[in-house]
Amino acid sequence: MIRTIIIEDEKPAVRRLEKLLGLFSDLELVASLNSVEEAVDWLQNNEHPQLIFSDIVLGDGLSFDIFDKVSTKAFIIYTTAFDQYTLKAFKLNSIDYLLKPIEEEDLAKAIEKFKSFLPEEGLVNSQEIRQIVRKEKSTLSRILVKIGYNLKVVSINEISCFYSENKIVYLQTKERNFPTDFTLDELENVLDETKFFRVNRQFIISSDYIKNIHTSPNYKVDLEFQPNEEISVSRERVKDFKDWLAGN
């Protein structure tokens, strides 16, 4: 049986999804959770499922906040009425995105997609998840930026980092920085994760431009081209950062 949970705050949507999931005899629904807080608490205190159906907009925040606080090996199928979140949904373990009202045919296809990723013995490990999701994602090769009344195409290979400042995300090149129309969360989902890594809430860096890495007292990175600001690796990201470097 495939252990499954629902994260959804609208009771009619919960009832509909529970009814639809009941059509699949190999799914075992173990919990229905209705908030970020409740989902975080449940995931911290229970065996994680293999599959999560999660709404995006919940009463106390976005479900993305759940998985920022709790790491999981489960696959996630997002369900929402807000299609502007499509890009953000495809992060980490997300394998599909269903718009409400969910149709039985679309749900069946999403579940079959999930099953196609599973090895015979069941749950995959986190590295396998990353490899699977990487195959599913399209990655950016260039970005269009605006300079006054002109447009410029910047190749991803020219970019040393992306960073946020005053609610605007900039890309940095040898030439200068340029404002973009992306958020860092969106960029995380469409950048080649073998080449780019989010070291903290403010910076995504490219391995091609790392000049030096300081390890004491904290991890700090010097890039060949960077803004006039120190780039520190957040404490909770240090292990993933080292794994990323080793993978490169």
UniProtKB/TrEMBL annotation:
The family database entries (SMART domains) matched by this protein are listed as:
LytTR, REC
Q: Which Pfam families match?
A: LytTR, Response_reg
Q: Which SUPFAM superfamilies match?
A: CheY-like
User: What sequence ranges are listed for the domain HTH LytTR-type?
Assistant: 143-247
Q: Which UniProt keywords apply?
A: DNA-binding, Phosphoprotein
Q: Which of the residues bear the PTM 4-aspartylphosphate? A: D55
Location of the Response regulatory domain: 3-115
Do the record's keywords include DNA-binding? Answer: yes
Q: Name one GO molecular function term.
A: phosphorelay response regulator activity
PROSITE patterns recorded for this chain?
Answer: HTH_LYTTR (PS50930), RESPONSE_REGULATORY (PS50110)
Designated name of the protein: DNA-binding response regulator
Species: Epilithonimonas hispanica
